[in-house]
Write a structure and sequence with these properties.
294 residues, alpha+beta, five-stranded parallel β-sheet, 15 strands
């Protein structure tokens, strides 16, 4: 059976106009359409749901799109029971509760002697979405809930950045672990005195045409002004290592992990769409797969 899968790896990618255009075209084809949400920021899964629900109000066919999360795919996989310190489940009834409203969400904030210890966001009393936990008024953990009200993802926060994240199975065991890393990289640019960056064939062609109409003196002066200078710009790159607890397979980056996940879903008749921003990274992992971009 033919199917179409949209791999969503960032909210920026999902908000591209081309994503919406391609998705609306897909739902008109009368085949199964799935949006595979593979975000390391688990909380953002709710933003994807909200986006699709809003889109479905104007385009009813979108309501038939199947939203699939990593927790859905791994809910029956064998996992690792987290320690109490890793899981860190607070007893919220021990704290002073304050109720607020924020963008059609219920927000319950829990205080201990005036200090914020937790914040629970809910669509309604029966549908929690996110629990944020605080230590010394600093964000320390984010628990993301699934549609069934069970926690499906945990992010451990240090200096306001998720350093280690877990996807949980139906038993509440960790089935996937994502660890954030940083490494230095160098970007090498060949620049000239006369232009910001002259590296295209079109620019070369224009330059050659101009040179043909110059005197020898003008040509020598132009050549002297366009001597290449190599500049090296240092930067820091963020990447994630992934560990699957079901078989303890390790992935050195997200793209090899995406390939492993998709290998269980793709068939000969599957049409796969990925964000153009990651196409260069994911295509080498799937040399035999025809990939479309949004």
């Amino acid at each position: 059976m033919q199917q179409i899968i949209f791999l969503v790896t960032s909210l920026n990618g999902m908000h591209k106009p081309n994503f919406t255009q391609q998705l609306l075209q897909a739902v008109k084809q009368g085949v199964a359409v799935s949006v595979l949400v593979a975000l390391v920021d688990f909380e953002a899964t709710w933003k994807v749901r909200t986006f699709l629900n809003r889109l479905a109000k104007k385009n009813p066919g979108v309501s038939d799109v199947n939203l699939v999360t990593l927790a859905d795919l791994y809910q029956e996989e064998q996992g690792l029971k987290l320690t109490s310190g890793e899981r860190n489940t607070p007893t919220l009834t021990n704290y002073d509760e304050r109720l607020f409203a924020d963008n059609q969400e219920q927000v319950k904030r829990y205080l201990d002697a005036g200090h914020l210890v937790a914040e629970l966001r809910q669509i309604d009393d029966e549908t929690p979405t996110v629990l944020r936990q605080y230590r010394a008024d600093q964000l320390s953990q984010i628990d993301t809930y699934g549609l069934d009200g069970q926690v499906v993802g945990i992010e451990k926060i240090t200096d306001e950045v998720a350093q280690t994240s877990y996807v949980l199975n139906a038993k509440g065991e960790a089935v996937l672990r994502f660890v954030r890393h940083e490494r230095p990289i160098n970007h090498v640019f060949n620049l000239s005195n006369a232009s910001a960056m002259m590296a295209t064939e079109f620019a070369d062609a224009k330059q050659n045409a101009a040179m043909a109409n110059m005197t020898q003196r003008q040509r020598n002066k132009a050549e002297a002004a366009t001597v290449d200078h190599t500049s090296i710009v240092s930067a820091t790159e963020t990447y994630y290592g992934v560990l699957a607890y079901s078989n303890y397979r390790r992935f050195d980056d997200l793209y090899t992990f995406y390939q492993a996940v998709l290998s269980h879903l793709l068939t000969a008749e599957t049409r796969l769409y990925v964000d153009l921003a990651i196409n260069a990274a994911i295509s080498p992992q799937m040399p035999n797969q025809l990939i479309f971009n949004y």
